[in-house]
Amino acid sequence: MSQQAYVKQTIENQVGYIEFFHPAHNSLPGNILAELAQTITDAGNNDEIKVIVLKSGGDRTFCAGASFNELININDEATGKVFFSGFANVINAMRKCPKFIIGRVQGKTVGGGVGVASATDYCMATKFAAIKLSELNVGIGPFVVGPAVERKLGLSGMSQIAIDANTFYPAEWAKQKGLFTQVFDTTEELDEAVKTFAENLCNYNPEAMKEMKKIFWEGTEDWDTLLAERAAISGRLVLSDFTKETLKRFK
Q1: Phi, psi (5° rounding) for residue 170?
Q2: Among 7, 103, 129, 220, fewest CB within 10 Å belongs to which?
Q3: 56, 58, 130, 60: which is closest to 90 by C-alpha?
């Protein structure tokens, strides 16, 4: 039985749980990324939701980044830019959402997935949630997610994992750098903590949280333009002979 990719939202005690899934280690194709961005935007406008939790299905990988099959089939710059805009649109939807977004990261996260985790306002994880920016491995770079990752890890942390593209950095390292707030031994403990934390936030003044969120994201107002420019860089690089040859080997 092949499992179907999905984005779904449930509301429980005023918390909106947004879950994405793809059978290939939660690597996300363009249509799922577009649906995810739209779901986050809609949740931000839904009065029944006070706080958002962003999670992924399955118990192993949080998100393996962009869909490799789509990446390998890019043959022109325009398609490339659209492909790399997928994660940009999700990050921008998270940035503009007037509600706090809590990240629940149960396992390894790679590339675009690190960008999504970095764009949450408060992120909790398990000890299995190692992170890796693997883009340089295939001849591109973490251009689109870079600003979000740098905002959380600082330039030194971001550049370290961007250059060392083969290495998974442990969850504890990500916590020390400020990406994760807490790291739990099990997914059960993580879920319990996320639920308690999110429901507690629902007792606060929504207007206060909205104003706080604006302050937290100050200085990112140009990201619509910036991330589109970054997507164009990746879209150009993915067509280079170097990257095409590398992708063939990976296939």
Answers
A1: -65, 160
A2: 220
A3: 56
The answer to whether the beta carbons of residues 226 and 139 sit under 8 Å apart is no
Q: In sequence order, which residues have a C-beta less than 8 Å from that of residue 135 and are 6 or more positions away?
A: 111, 141, 142, 143, 162, 165, 234
Share of the chain above pLDDT 70, in %: 99
> 45, 107, 66: which is closest to 231 by C-alpha?
66
Question: How is residue 232 written in tokens?
Answer: 């164009």
Mean of pLDDT values over 18-37: 96
What pLDDT is attached to residue 2?
Answer: 58
**Domain ranges within the chain, ordered by starting residue:** 6-187
When the candidates are 3.40.50.360, 3.30.70.360, 3.90.226.10, 3.50.50.60, the CATH number that belongs to 6-187 is: 3.90.226.10
Is the per-residue pLDDT at 1 higher than 60? no
Q: Which residues does 182 contact at the CB level (< 8 Å), separation at least 6?
A: 124, 125, 175, 193
77: helix, coil or strand?
helix
| pLDDT tens per residue across span 201-217 | 999 999 999 999 999 99
d(Cα 184, Cα 169) in Å, to the nearest integer? 16
Report the C-alpha gap between 238 and 140 in whole angstroms. 6
- With a CB cutoff of 8 Å and minimum separation 6, the contacts of 224 are 92
Q: CB of 131 within 8 A of CB of 161? A: yes
Q: Partners of 109 in the beta sheet?
A: 63, 131
Classified as helix, coil or strand, 102 is: strand
